[in-house]
Amino acid sequence: MKIGVLALQGDFELHAKALGRCGIQAGEVRKPEQLADVDGLIIPGGESTTLLKLMHEWGFVPALEKFHAQGRPIFGTCAGLILLAREVESPAQFSLGLIDVGVERNAYGRQRESFEARGSATLEGRATPIEMVFIRAPRIRRVGAGVETLAAYRDEPVMARQGSVLVATFHPELTDDPAVHEYFCAMVRKARVGVRAAAEGEASLRKGVRAAADGEASLRSGRPA
């Protein structure tokens, strides 16, 4: 199993190290075609407008939409959350809309107002202590009906999931706590089984279609003129 980290801008190296501590091979993703080589993807924190500009320049938007449509998990932290959200405000900007949440940029304050906190997340059905580092963090202002809130801080959601998409307003890679990355790794591991089964089923279907076409061609060629 291999998990990619979008390496256009931001703290992608720390996410790769966090995956390594979970015993998972990490790969830096710098071009859209490299998405074919990974089973899941982390979009790290950074500056969302810069990330968005680079993603457009390199053609990542349609590639990420295809990656998501294939059922491969995506985890967005901080700026990554902003890029995955359905709506963005302060100011409004384009986003992929892969998770039904509305977010407000930099809502916890500027760099000097960054802070750390301890909390609890519901991971695999269990309450799990986690460490949270908030740096120019966005706030999740709206959570859609199909979205599960996994962790909250002062009664506000800070970590959420919808299907194969996981998001967090904080930076789990800045701590030594592996819980959040381990949870995402488990998501990827489970999804990988489904993606592989779907690919094998599609290959089998194509093989059957080819066999049917060959049989029909053989029948036609064997008919008397």
Description:
Helix content is 36%, strand content 31%. It has a single domain (2-191), classed as Class I glutamine amidotransferase (GATase) domain (Rossmann fold, 3-Layer(aba) Sandwich), CATH 3.40.50. The protein has five helices and twelve strands. Strand 1 (2-6), helix 1 and strand 2 form a beta-alpha-beta unit. The model has no long low-confidence stretch (mean pLDDT 90). 38% of the residues are buried. The protein has a seven-stranded mixed β-sheet with strand order 2-1-3-4-12-11-10. A three-stranded mixed β-sheet has the order 5-6-9. The chain has a two-stranded antiparallel ribbon with strand order 7-8. The termini are far apart.
What key attributes describe this structure?
225 residues; three-stranded mixed sheet; alpha/beta; Rossmann fold; single chain; seven-stranded mixed sheet
Could you tell me the mean pLDDT?
A: 90
> How many individual β-strands?
12
Instruction: Quote the CATH topology.
Output: Rossmann fold
Strands of the biggest beta sheet: in what spatial order? Answer: 2-1-3-4-12-11-10
Order of helices and strands: EHEEHHEHEEEEEEEEH
How far apart are the termini?
Answer: 56 Å
> Would you identify the regions where 5 or more consecutive residues have pLDDT less than 50?
none
What is the level-2 CATH architecture name?
A: 3-Layer(aba) Sandwich
By CATH reckoning, the class would read Alpha Beta
Q: What is the C-alpha radius of gyration, as a whole number of Å?
A: 21 Å
Q: Count the domains.
A: 1
CATH level-4 homologous superfamily: Class I glutamine amidotransferase (GATase) domain
The percent range for helix content is: 25-40%
Multimeric organization: single chain
Q: Percent of residues in beta strands?
A: 25-35%
Number of H/I helices: 5
- Derived structural class: alpha/beta
Main β-sheet description: 7 strands, mixed
